[in-house]
Amino acid sequence: MDDVGKGPWLDDDEQKAWRSYLLMNKTLETHMERHLQREFGLSKSDFEILVNLSEAENGRMRAFELGRATQWEKSRMSHHLTRMEKRGLIRREACQARYPEVVITAEGQAAIEACAPQQAARIREFFVDVFGPERLAELGKAGDEVVETIRRHEENDCPPEVRGTC
């Protein structure tokens, strides 16, 4: 069993930690999304787009910028923006560039302002307060290191078809 940790397989402690992380992530995401959907009629994807737009200068971004921010594929972005536009949460406006800008509407702004405080309170209750300041700082540092490791992998070793295109 000594060589297990050195090969492709995870040892028992690594496997337990990985599965615990997966379960935590899935449980937290599912619970948060249920609240968004039932209380505000928004999906996790709606919320992600509205957050990005509400934080952008003048409440507008190009679709490719949203794709980069969300790490979504172009077709997923296009389909989702169409659904949000039909619901009045965003609109597309022509601009001097080739493609239109995506703009948060008054309805979209009202939706994000209504649900964001509840989302923040739940994140605090189910995540921030559970970890506490020291463990939260360590988690943030570890998360940054994982993202940076993946970024380097994508730049140097990752096959193009796996990298994804936003």
UniProtKB/TrEMBL annotation:
HTH marR-type domain: residues covered: 35-135
Tell me which domain of life the UniProt entry assigns to the organism this sequence originates from.
Bacteria
Could you give a single Gene Ontology term from the biological process aspect?
response to stress
Q: Please identify the protein, giving its name as recorded.
A: Winged helix-turn-helix transcriptional regulator
Q: Where are the transmembrane segments?
A: none
Pfam families according to UniProt? MarR_2 (PF12802)
InterPro entries cross-referenced by the UniProt entry: HTH_MarR-typ, MarR/SlyA-like, WH-like_DNA-bd_sf, WH_DNA-bd_sf
Q: What species is this protein from?
A: Kribbella sandramycini
Q: Output the Gene Ontology terms for molecular function.
A: DNA-binding transcription factor activity
Record's Gene3D superfamilies? Winged helix-like DNA-binding domain superfamily/Winged helix DNA-binding domain
